[in-house]
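User:
Hi there, any thoughts?
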Amino acid sequence: MASTYSLQGSWTPLAALTVLWTSLAWVEGKPSCPSCRMPPLERSAEKAFLIEVAKQQILQKLNLSERPNITHPVPRMAVANALRRLHMGKGWTDGMGHFSSWEKTESDEQGYEIISFAETEPSGLLQFQLTHTKGQAMHFLKAQLWLHLKAHENITIQIYLAGQPQVVLGQQQLESQGSGWHTFSLMPALQNFFEHEDKTLRLELNCEGCRPNIMSLMATGSNSHQPFLVVKAKIKESGHRVTKRSVSCDQNSDLCCRKDYYVNFRDIGWNDWIFKPEGYQINYCMGECPMHLAGVPGVAASFHTTVFNLVKANNIPIAGHSCCVPTQRRALSLLYFDPNSNLIKTDIPDMVVDACGCS
C-alpha cells in the first residue's frame, strides 16, 4: 500500500529529507519505528542520502542557507601565521575530536572563535567584515587585535572606533624593540558594538612617536603579517544527556546499534571553505528494539530527533514500540571560512553519535 504525505508550509531541506526518510519506514503496509526495520537502500542511494544529510545538518547548525562562496580567499600564509600565533594548529582528529587549545565549554554551550583579517587603508584605518549569528543570543568573552610592527623606538598606540576618537578601545605603550607581534585587548569597550547588528567594524590607529604614522611600522604588503582580530563568544543552548552505550553495527545482528559513515569534505567539494577537519563522522542509529531493551530516557536535539519531531508534527503514525535512538553524542569541531572570509573556530554540540539505545 503506497502512502503519500503532503508537505505544507516552510520546510528546510533537512526537514524534507527526514520526512521522506520516515515515510519509507512501512513494513507490509503497516507503520513502523523510523529507525527499525528500515528497507535497505542501494549503496549509492545511501551514500547520496547521508552526504546530503551531512551537508544540510552542518549548514543548519552554522546558520547558513548555503555553503559560502569564497571569492576572495585569505592568503594561506596569513592563515597559517595566525593559527600558529594562537596555538590552534595542533590536536586535530578525523572529525570526532576537539581543538587541543580550545578552552572547552559546557556541553550545552556552542563556542565560537572568529579570526577576521583586516582591510587596511593608508590613513591607519583597519576594516573588519564580521558576521553575526542571527536569532541567537551570543555572549562575547574576548576581542583581541593582533598587529605586526617593524622595529621602533618608544611609542604609544591608541585604538578607537572610526569617527569616534573619544571612545578609546585600547591603548598600549611599547618600548624600543625589534619587529614582532603585539596584542591589544578591546574588551569590554567593544561589547556595545557586538550587541548590535552592524557587521563592519572600522578601527582607527593613532601612534605617538611614529614617523610619519603607524602605517610606516606595519608590514601591510606581507601576506604573513596581515593584521587580524580574534573574537571569542559562546551561545547558550539547551540539551540533555544520556549515558547508555551501545556497539557499532555488524552483519550478524539486527539489534539496535550504531552505524558508522564518514564524509570526506574534499570528496564533496567543501575543502575550500572548511579548513579543518578533513571530514565528518556522521554516525546514525538503526536496528530492532525488543521490549527487554526499551527504557533509555531522553533524546537530545539532532538529525535523529528531527525525524521523530517531524513525525509527530505531521501526524505520521508509527508503532508504539521502542525505537533505536542516539544515547550519547559529542561535538564536531570546525575551522571554516564564513561568507566574509573570516576564519571561524567552533565546537558544534551533539553532532557525532557515539552510542545508541532503545527509547
